[in-house]
Amino acid sequence: MTAGFERRHGYPAGTNRVRLANPDDQTAARALAEVGLASADLVTLYESIGDIAWEDIGNGYFVDPVPDVLLRLKEYGAVGDGTGEEPRGLVIGSNGGGLCYVTGPSGVVYRTRTPSPDEPEPDRVADDLRQFLELLEQSLTRFVANGEPGYL
């Protein structure tokens, strides 16, 4: 994706990576599992993947490191996860344009409509984490092919 990026866009590529989890990330993933707000798939992801940062695809796509997810939970508490019940969601990333990705125990992934993670009616973007990651991959593929980042 970054080959020829500067020539096409006029500025150097930023951080565009999928970082493997290190031992600290894996320890934090186990702590996340104990909290009871994360799906098993999210915990499994964080045991392998430390974070995703694609700064140059549109406004960017980010899946935050699990220590950041836990810190945000500690400082601000759980957020709504789109179910309308008591807040049981975790902010796991953003689209770089200020909108947050939120998921809870069910694994469904939502995107807020405003920069606030306390969005009362977030948009459902994926039925589960696997579909969300597939949508991220499709956005990357589309960006490489034609420069369009997609809607995610």
Explained architecture:
With 152 residues, the chain is α+β, with helices and mostly antiparallel strands. The chain is built from five helices and seven strands, in the order H-E-H-H-E-E-H-E-E-E-E-H. It has helices at residues 5-9, 23-35, 40-48, 66-76, 129-146; strands at 16-20, 49-54, 61-63, 90-94, 100-103, 109-111, 123-126. A seven-stranded antiparallel beta sheet has the order 1-2-3-4-5-6-7. The longest helix is centred in the C-terminal third of the chain and has 18 residues, at 129-146. The chain is globular and about 50 Å long.
Summary, kept brief:
This protein is an alpha+beta fold and 152 residues long. The chain has five helices and seven strands.
Give the SSE map.
Blueprint: H1 5-9, E1 16-20, H2 23-35, H3 40-48, E2 49-54, E3 61-63, H4 66-76, E4 90-94, E5 100-103, E6 109-111, E7 123-126, H5 129-146
Antiparallel strand pairs: 1-2, 2-3, 3-4, 4-5, 5-6, 6-7
Helix pairs in contact: 2-3
List keywords for this structure.
seven-stranded antiparallel sheet, globular, 152 residues
The N- and C-terminal alpha carbons lie at a distance of: 18 Å
Average pLDDT score: 91
Low-confidence stretches: none
Largest sheet: 7 strands, antiparallel
The residue fraction in helices comes out at 25-40%
Per DSSP, the total helix count is 5
C-alpha Rg, in Å?
Answer: 15 Å
Instruction: Provide the β-strand percentage band.
Output: 15-25%
- Number of distinct beta strands: 7
Query: Numbering strands along the chain, what is their spatial order in the largest sheet?
Result: 1-2-3-4-5-6-7
**Structural class estimated from helices and strands:** alpha+beta
Shape: globular
Q: Helix and strand string, N-terminal first?
A: HEHHEEHEEEEH
